[in-house]
What we know:
The complex is a heterotrimer. By secondary structure, chain A is an alpha/beta fold. Chain A has 16 helices and 11 strands. Chain A has an 11-stranded mixed sheet with strand order 1-3-2-4-6-5-10-11-9-7-8, sandwiched between helices. In chain A, helix 6 packs parallel to helix 7 (182-188) and helix 8 packs antiparallel against helix 16. Chain B is α+β, with helices and mostly antiparallel strands. Classes of the chains: A alpha/beta, B alpha+beta, C alpha+beta.
Amino acid sequence: MRDDKLCQLTIHEAHELLGQKKLSSLELTMALLQRINEVEDKIHACVTITEDIALEQARQADEHISRGEITPLTGIPVLVKDVICTRGIRTTCSSKMLENFVPPYDATVVEKLKAQKAVILGKTNMDEFAMGSSTEHSAFFPSHNPWDVERVPGGSSGGSTAATSAGEAIYALGSDTGGSIRQPAGFCGVVGLKPTYGRVSRFGLVAFASSLDQIGPITRDVTDCALVMNVIAGHDSRDSSSVPHVVPDYTKNLNSRGRSLKGTVIGVPREYFPDNMQGEIKTALVAAINRLQELGATVDWEVSLPHTRYALAVYYILAPSEASANLARYDGVKYGFSEQNAGSVIEATEKTRQFGFGAEVKRRIMLGTYALSAGYYDAYYLKAQKVRTLIKQEFEQAFEKYDALVTPTSPTVAFKLGEKMEDPLQMYLSDVCTLPINIAGLPAISVPAGFVQNLPVGMQIIGKPFDETTLLDIAFAYEQATSWHERKPML
Amino acid sequence: MKLSHQQVEHIARLARLGLSAEERDKFSLQLSDILKNFEVLNELNTADVMPATHSIPLQNVFREDEEASSYSQDEVLANAPRKEENCFKVKAILE
Amino acid sequence: MTYETVIGLEVHAQLLTRSKMFCSCNADYASAPPNTHVCPVCLGMPGVLPVINKKAVEYTIMTALALNCTIPEYTKFDRKNYSYPDLVKGYQISQYDYPISEHGWLTIDSNGAKKKINITRVHLEEDVAKSQHREGYSLIDMNRSGVPLMETVSEPEMRSPEEARDYLVKLRSILRYLGVSNGNMEEGSFRCDANISLRPSGSTELGGKVELKNLNSFKAVYQALQYEVKRQTAVLEEGGTIAQETRGWADDKGITVTQRSKEYANDYRYFPEPDLPPLFLDRAWIKEIHDGLPELPEARKERFMTQYCLSLSDASILTSSRTMADYFEDSVRLMGPDRAKLISNWIQGDFSRLLNAVGIEIESAKISPEELVEMLTLVDKGTLNGPAAKVVFEEMFHTGKKASAIVEEKKLSQISDAAEIKKEVQQAMSGNPRAVSDYRSGKESALAFLTGQVMRATRGRANPSLVREILIEELRNSQE
């Protein structure tokens, strides 16, 4: 098989070849490292490549496979967003603050991947501390969209989605606080799932907004997404916000081709199709939803979630507030960047943070500090928490009638690099379709649903809490009926 | 709601964030802009609404009082920017 | 004009859990080398998460119940945001608007009368790291970071430094009875901040509130408050006003001094800790904890007075610590309640003197209640006389040997054999003819002299009353 074909294999395809001994993990790993070598100067998806570790892990995986010890992720190379801690491998959050930080621990999800004998190729670029929607807020370099390198891959998991799209890894892990998996997955034409809050352990995920953050898979198709979920989901005693619910087999319903969606009731909330949305995106989504209807789903086009219009404000109060506390630990004392050219211990802390953080991180720390400060707490933070309750309730009511809600993943396709860098509000609006879902703690998946001007369009399917299974079922049926996911960018 | 330079400086001080004059000016404009967008929340009467303090309704998550081994001193100090006598070293803390 | 003193105390006590508040590191760091009881959680590393130590919550509930507090069904943790190099995360996980307990009280004895001091709240939080100061820089050891810390806040209801001291002694004794804290002020596991203000007698208008810090002993708390009463009175009498400020106690100079505020502004930006789900305190659990509470010092003191006929003063001292009270009762159980006063005297007398001299508590002593009772039984049986018992007890205290073994080894048993004593008496008489003739001429003091000679010759072991009896008999015999 040609190397560029190998690089675009899905997990389940590669697994089959490995199981049949038609391919070794080492061959696959070498092909991907080669591919990274070739395309990285255009894509800039990776912050750290762990070639030696990957080759060693591949050899070990091959040994296991030769003994017949193989699970769906054994020997399959993965890239991990650089906000997820990896023992002995620097974890930077694409920040100068953590440029040389080497955690002495693995995130729970990384432990779980290692237990399956996965092969870790390296760490992917992101918006600094996951704050951003374009990966331009990386302290190191912006990542580029494989479909048009003049454009952003989205963010903040843009490195992970660009790499998965460009064939630099078979799949990747991302994190999603307000859309950071789904929006870039949509921009790059890959599948991205934000699990229900509490479904996947956050232990080892560097916190941005603790009540909103979740780790999730970024894959080439829905089956792969389910396979990764089978491994990373589950209770973790080290994360008090992870739930003790039993993890179902997410692949259970995903083997019957041409599955009908008969009996599935889907709602289409009109607030997610605002007037200023790109017309072609609306057209693509309408076509996609029509396809769901053709597959047997009952579609209600007249759903209204009027509190959607408050989500942006709620999010940009709550997330920065939590972030202002979460990022207070970066003071140059215990680890990370430290500026000592200062007169006092306080000044040293202030300068460390002034020079260690980028503009967007500082903006959000300022915003959050303000929203929590004396005299403003009730008007901003408390108010936002109350509206959060209303948004949650509105979704709960909708889910009494619908099995899932379907929306565009983003109001636009991938925008040009630099286009929104000077206008934070415009950048924030890029997540307007995704952040209400984090506020409500719900699961949502973005799947490729068409192209506009040769750029991928994502469809977001939102589900009930802990009902990732229904999302994957709908996404799988749609994927089987379409071929968007088979298109690959030319590089 | 327009943020004054003084307010921006006060917030920066609370957040222990050094700011250049340029950053201060820029933030005062940008933050004012963003805060204006938050005013939309005032449309809603939330007097009787309970705040959502957590994402999902978990409660009483405990661990038993069991001791496990700590990390080695070397691991603890490995990332320290400055250290001495197996401690983290900082500028003089004024009491 | 006379002024009334208004004092409130905030007490922080480290809890005696095995592991830290939110991670599994060993919480007993007292003798550990720096940074050896540390993990990513208590070091505040990126991405790691806290998990609540159930025992720490239980200990706080125990304390709250002992302090007659109300325990709400709902409680939660919050982040208290401030920046300091010893605070690893830049926020302390503490409790703000829904503490584990509120509205309690304890009683102190004030001028012979009982006085109730109300307690505002008891809540749970985590301790910060420890810094040491060097010439021009500071060093931070994270071992203390994350140790469970229980804060007890009183209402400002104490009216004198004496009352404040009594409150503190009482609170500490309760915590130690419960076994939730070792109450050691010198080692910093039991820390006290005091708020003090003055107001003209009869007025309700308070003067500026001064917060006192760096109070590292009971004596420091008492002396600092006394100093502040004098200082503030002097300022007010000269027509001045008291500024609201934080002052530190300078132990060496015996004065309080203005402290630089460590916070630029007191704006802690509390918000609910998103990493920790709230707690719903099940009533059945609270009842279970309540049923398991030990007898508290106040109740035990009353019981000692009625059950063992002890004075208020004896009962107070014996119940001042749970281990001393246990020691006393264990001993009484072995020897019988009619000997309670004797045991009380020994514990408060020689035993306490020796414990103080070595600087240890009764539970660390080498003498068990069984061994104390064995020694006292030897006295009862006449094997040991009073002076020898003191010698034996001191030897037991230092060596841990049993009384009988020491008696044997040092030949300290009393000589009650008449023949043996008679021999000694005859020797003393023949060696001191002058004293013998003095006695015969009517000098009674000569008898005491001759008795002393016999005691000296037997190194104190002769039974003194027997010596006297035989001596009189021999003197009479020799005259005939």
